[in-house]
């Protein structure tokens, strides 16, 4: 498939002890799924700045110690846009997660992650993040509920 454009996105997974913070996406792309916090990087900001901004906008947390641990490329069959998604994590943050118009945040125990209500790729790479690994991956979707092929490597 020929890709004609790339969108640069961020995805932030906050950890606290043995819990991780996910948000129920209330609207837009991925609505109805639990996911980390993130979105499009805006012109004039770095990818890290975009990650921090989205974390603040979507659940009111701030973190000065986000670490980039993964790079995921998503394509959808018959869609020329490739989503270049930079994955960050941290266990240091300020504030209490708060529901916003975009997301309803909730802590999940790492052994009780709601994979059934998440993007299908998450069950492949989220365990790597939890184990402290760095990773790079590519996923080709057909629609939102089927992966046609994928490739995932730890770095
Ligand atoms: P907005 O459209 O809300 O940004 N995202 C994905 N996350 C996972 N786990 N799997 C996918 O598989 C994803 N595709 C996109 C990146 C979209 C948010 O959703 C993430 C952004 O954080 C296809 O601005």
Map the helices and strands.
Elements (H helix, E strand, L loop, with lengths): L4 E12 L2 E7 L8 E2 L11 H13 L7 E10 L4 E10 L12 E7 L12 H9 L4 E7 L5 E8 L1
The structure holds 6-O-methyl guanosine-5'-monophosphate.
Please, could you describe this protein's structure?
By secondary structure, the chain is mainly beta. It has one domain: Nucleoside Triphosphate Pyrophosphohydrolase (Alpha-Beta Complex). 14% of the residues lie in helices and 41% in strands. It has helices at 47-59, 122-130, and strands at 5-16, 19-25, 34-35, 67-76, 81-90, 103-109, 135-141, 147-154. Strands 1, 2, 3, 4, 5, 6, 7 and 8 form an 8-stranded mixed beta sheet that branches. β2 (19-25) and β3 form a beta hairpin. The longest helix is centred in the middle third of the chain and has 13 residues, at 47-59. The radius of gyration is 15 Å and the shape is globular. It starts with a strand and ends with a strand. The model has no long low-confidence stretch (mean pLDDT 97). Bound molecules: 6-O-methyl guanosine-5'-monophosphate. Residues 9-11, 28-30, 35, 38-40, 74, 83, 85, 119, 121-122, 141 line the site of 6-O-methyl guanosine-5'-monophosphate (6OG).
């Amino acid at each position: 498939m020929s890709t004609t454009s790339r969108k640069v996105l961020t995805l932030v997974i906050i950890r606290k002890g043995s819990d991780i913070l996910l948000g129920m996406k209330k609207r837009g792309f991925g609505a109805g799924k639990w996911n980390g916090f993130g979105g499009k990087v805006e012109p004039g900001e770095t990818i890290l700045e975009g990650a921090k901004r989205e974390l603040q906008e979507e659940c009111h947390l701030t973190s000065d110690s986000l670490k980039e641990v993964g790079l995921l490329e998503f394509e959808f069959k018959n869609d020329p846009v490739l989503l270049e998604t930079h994955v960050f994590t941290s266990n240091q943050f300020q504030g209490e997660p708060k529901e916003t118009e975009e997301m309803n945040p909730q802590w999940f125990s790492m052994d009780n992650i709601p994979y059934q209500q998440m993007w299908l790729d998450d069950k492949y790479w989220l365990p790597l993040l939890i184990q402290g690994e760095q990773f790079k991956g590519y996923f080709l979707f057909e629609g939102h509920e089927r992966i046609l092929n994928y490739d995932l490597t730890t770095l």
